[in-house]
Amino acid sequence: NAGVTQTPKFRVLKTGQSMTLLCAQDMNHEYMYWYRQDPGMGLRLIHYSVGEGTTAKGEVPDGYNVSRLKKQNFLLGLESAAPSQTSVYFCASSYAGPTDTQYFGPGTRLTVL
Amino acid sequence: EDQVTQSPEALRLQEGESSSLNCSYTVSGLRGLFWYRQDPGKGPEFLFTLYSAGEEKEKERLKATLTKKESFLHITAPKPEDSATYLCAVSSGGSYIPTFGRGTSLIVHP
C-alpha cells in the first residue's frame, strides 16, 4: 500500500495563477482532509470530506476549493493564488472520522511569488 | 474555542537523558487527544490517541499520559533517532476540526 500520496511535491506560482493539488489514498478511507502548515503555527484545517461527493469547510477555507469525485481522491484548488497561500500543504485520511487515526501524506511545498 | 499549547517550543537532550513534553488543552468535551511525530520535510506520523483522563499508552521509549487539562509525552533514554518535532492535537464536541499545537522540536545529541 502506498498510503497517502500527494502531487506535486513542489510548486512555484505567480500571483493570480491557478493550480490543483491532488491527494490519493489507497486505504479505502471515508474521511479526507487538507491542512496547511506555516512556520510558528500549528496545522490548520482548510477543507475536509466525510465521503465521496461531500465536502465541508474547515478553519481556513477562504481562497481554496475542493472536490471529492472519487472516494480515493481529494483535490485542493487555488483559483487565484496569493502570496499568503505560500505554505506546506498536507493531505490526510482516516477511516472513521476525526477521533480516528489520521494518516498524512508527504506534503506539497507551494510558493506564491 | 479549543486551545492547545505545547511546551517547551524546543528541547535539546543528551542521548539517554529522559524528559517530558507537555500539551495543555482547553476544550469543551474532549473526544480525543493525539500525538504525532514529524520529521523534517515529511508529513506527521501518528503515535498515540488518548480518550479519557488517566489513560496511558506506550510505544518503545515513548509514553503518553492524559489528565483533564494536559497530556505528557515522556521520552525514556532517548536516542538521536528520536529527534523530530512532536505535535499534539485535540478533537472535541461535535466538531470535525481538530486543533493542533505548534509542536515541540526535540533534538537528541549523541
Question: Helix segment count of chain A?
Answer: 0
Beta strand % of chain A: over 45%
User: Helix segment count of chain B?
Assistant: 0
Please report which band the strand proportion of chain B falls in: under 5%, 5-15%, 15-25%, 25-35%, 35-45% or over 45%: over 45%
Determine Rg of chain A (CA atoms, Å).
13 Å
Shape of chain B: globular
Largest interface (CB within 8 Å) is between:
A-B, 24 and 25 residues
Structure description:
The complex is a heterodimer of chains A (113) and B (110). By secondary structure, chain A is mostly beta strands. Chain A has strands spanning 4-7, 10-13, 19-25, 31-37, 44-49, 56-57, 65-67, 73-78, 87-94, 103-104, 108-112. In chain A, the strands form two sheets. In chain A, strands 2, 4, 5, 6, 9, 10 and 11 form a seven-stranded mixed β-sheet that branches. Chain A has a four-stranded antiparallel β-sheet with strand order 1-3-8-7, with no helix packed on it. In chain A, a hairpin with a 6-residue loop joins strand 5 and strand 6 (56-57). Chain B is an all-beta fold. Chain B contains no helices and eleven strands. The chains are: A mainly beta (113), B mainly beta (110). The A-B interface holds A 4, 40-45, 48, 50, 56, 58-59, 90, 92, 97-99, 101-107 and B 4, 31-32, 34, 36, 41-46, 49, 51, 87, 89, 91, 95-103.
Summarize the structure.
The complex is a heterodimer of chains A (113) and B (110). By secondary structure, chain A is mostly beta strands.
